[in-house]
Design goal:
This protein has about 325 residues and is α+β, with helices and mostly antiparallel strands. It folds into three domains: about 10-60, no CATH class; about 75-195, no CATH class; about 205-315, no CATH class. It has helices at about 20-25, 30-40, 60-75, 80-85, 135-145, 150-165, 170-180, 185-195, 200-210, 255-270, 280-285, 290-305; strands spanning about 20, 45-50, 50-55, 80, 100-105, 115-120, 125-130, 130-135, 220-225, 230-240, 245-250, 275-280, 310-315. It has a five-stranded mixed beta sheet with strand order 12-11-10-9-13. Helix 10 (about 255-270) links the parallel strand 11 (about 245-250) and strand 12. Helix 4 (about 80-85) packs antiparallel against helix 5, helix 5 runs antiparallel to helix 6 (about 150-165) and helix 6 (about 150-165) crosses helix 8.
Length: about 325
Amino acid sequence: MKRRLWNADSLFDLSSTGVVTRRQLREAGVSDAAIDSRCAPGGPWQRLLPGVVLLRNGHPSTLERSAAALAYGGPMSMITGCVGLDSFGYGTNGSAGEVHLLLPAQMRRASVSFVRAERTWRLPKPITKGSIRVAPLVRSLVDATRAAKSETRCVALLTEVLQRDGVSIDEIATELAEGPRRYSALTRRVLLELRDNAHSVAELEDQRLYRSSGLPPMTHNCDIYAPSGEFIAKTDGWIDSVALAREIDSVTHHLSPADYQRTQARRNRMQAHGLIVVSHSPQDIRDRPTQVLDDLRKNYQHALARPRPDVVMVPRQSAG
């Protein structure tokens, strides 16, 4: 019987997070028969992709799937989309295990198993995150939105990165303009709405709901000042003719006692200057739209019935 010339433990030195190519195994002296035997059901290894082996059994992690995708794609490939976003620290909440892989346009690799292979002439310079090559943040973001199944999902992806100043609206617009138009219609439409200064899913939903109210146009995201120039508050929405402020109350804005105290002080300051403030939570807007519209209409009539306070509204500049 021919003696084995390799040591299973030493093979991990060849691997990236336990992932190795069949070619590497052969070069290390592992025969095709040994590879097939160890990757058989119940064996200690598993075949993740064509020509790619994980040196353990069990469910592969996102990191292991990413390493396998890169081994499958070759040294010029890189990861983009939701897994790319995740490597930058953005909680994408559900890439469904898919790894979106960018490849040079001239390379022939098919989508297989959990890998969605995309050939492109616009291959960016990759960024290394640990042992993984990923596309730059703006490319990963736009590619993730192209794969979004709903407008809500697309908005959530964009607003998380924008709110944390990861990229600007202009950077996203440039990436969209330079990239393919295929599958980008939803992203383009949402970005136009975000240019109107709606920085959250709740604000977008509220703006759409308000347009059905029959009330005068509302200015979104503006600053309110006293005639003396004293700053009063920033508002999510504003009906200038009656000095009515619109507020979206999110629990994330009140995570600490200090946050809550700042909100209360701000509300008190607005009311002291005679502003009427109408506030709802994102859950109200989503689940009780009829009640929200009723509150807005009643408060508008209340504001209309009293003299307008002497305050000045200044629209804020668009992000990016």
